[in-house]
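Morning!

This is the sequence you dropped in the shared folder:
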Amino acid sequence: MLLHAATIFLSAFLLFLVQPLLAKQILPWFGGAAIVWTLCMVFFQLVLLLGYAYAHWLSSRAGARRQAWIHVALLVASLAFLPVAPDASWKPAGGDNPVVGILALLFATVGLPYFLLSSTSPLVQSWFAREFPGSSPYRLFALSNLASMLALLGYPFLFEPWLTNPQQSRWWSGGYALFVALCAALAWRSRAAPLMGAEGWQPSAQAAEAKPRARDIALWLALATMGSVVLLGVSNHLTQNISSIPLLWVIPLAIYLLTFILCFEGRFWYRRDIYLASLLFVLCAMGWFLADRRLQFDLLWHLLVFNIGLFFICMFCHGELARMRPGPRHLTLFYLVVSLGGVLGGVLVGIVAPVTLPSYLELEIALVVLALLAFVVNLRQHIVVLGFIAAVAGVTFAVLVYRVHTFTEDTVHVERNYYGVLRVKENESQLDEPGKTRYRSLVHGAILHGEQYLSDKYRRSATTYYKTTSGIGRTLVAFLGKGARVGVIGLGAGSIAVYANKGDTYRFYDINPAVIEVANTWFTYLKDARATGAKVDTVLGDARLSLEREPPQNFDVIAVDAFSGDSIPVHLITVEAFTEYLRHLQPKGVIAFHVSNRFLDLKPVLLAIAEAHKLEYAFIHETGEAGGTTSDWVVLTRDKTFIYKQEIAEATEPVAPQPDWRLWTDDYNNLVQVFKR
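The structure's back. Tokens below.
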């Protein structure tokens, strides 16, 4: 029994440790977008399904000796994938489909090892049931979930801060080699255990187990799917306005796994009446937070409400699964269906939703479906209970309708893809002089990414974060009339192009093709800049990868303005990233970094990077007029005289250094430290 437990524990630990490990390593290749984690989850759930299907086939169709030979052969073959690390040849070119790229990369990097790790839990439990008839193998399932949660929680606190990416890959690969030895030994030992129903196998209650009904299997699938949908929906919701980082990935996933542990460790953990009432309450609470726009930037409340809501939703889904689970004879079928539900949830959120839904409405729809699912599961309850469930279903449906209404209000164009949701809005604005003019806004998620007045008189006005009194405005004004070469990371509406004039070159980098299309179709900044005689280019692809591939561009100014919603792509704010920026910068050039953020204070991070690269540093905060947009920019340069220019010096504000903070690198960052208190 000890060998069974050790093999399952190690396999589950490695299974879930490799998820954030690989996702973090490939995250910079795809612009730091939240979709990277979602697609990684789709891959892991898909291979988990294949692993469960393989375990089901092997345990039900192959003899004991054949099982051992097949599994040992695959284990040995999987060692060829070591060490597990993504190859640089998989770095995407501009315009590549991230779905195909990420899934193919992961299959090539960890496909067979992850497949075998995925099959371990049901397969070893099947071997356990044969060797110890009458003993419940579900404790081993709970043990595997415990190991999974330890791996997830251990990664951001024990592995990520102290080990570089190559070190993480080597340690994981060593652990996998140990797993191969343990699992091969157990597979070889299982040859002697009789198959269920074979001569010599002792009958027990397992032999009389009824075959699961179609209704049972459908409910298994529905409950597993909704748990997966809410998991990924909550993860997307929480990373939209902070950053897509392992810490914000693993907390929801750890909660998801914790509910599996509690529900399958013993029936006493799940009490239907208690968790049904809790489910109805959290459905209403989550719906309220999704609908009330006054609460959309209360980050700590969102972290609290949606993680607690995820816990109670998953307790309901997994608790009902535990109540309906079959005996050991049908356990591989049960795991197969539960895994299929996980895959369906991942595909719906990660692949289907971005190309079918106009906005992030997955959570709102999930709340409605969960209320209806609770109604179906509780059909035999008292009519009063069913009435409460129906009322909550009505509330969640009203939330969905209201969210669609508020999302489309004043909106003239919507574009959603795997990099987020873009909206172009039109409104009336009162300028200083009498009379009104219309203006367009580009909103990414819930964050403004540029505005432009539509009248000919004002459409070349610098607006929002890019006014002449902002950090980037003061910087670009200093280069007017000098034939400036300007590189801009993050296009938005193209607002920075308002400073372009004849003889200037402006080169915009953006990973999102929809942003480039919207900037050229719904805004005229780029077209107007070209009309002045300026050269304006757009480069599709992750800016850092594009810069790595290009020869030195000799920019006078590099503006880093790449945000998705209010989320920062962390790979653009590291020591190594600035090494690349400096390679493309003139000796007296300037880097202007946009750090306006509701939740994160990035100024000390940039100050430390400036000191590491021996750069001069100025922080410029612009307070908008009543109701106007405020902006924070950090200006960095090798040229001390630029920092002393009157227009820069008069607007510079002090920044308190944080000497105890570690320098941000490609292997290390700490967003918890930079949360605004």
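Headline: The first strand starts at residue 411 and ends at 417.

More detail when I'm at my desk.
O.
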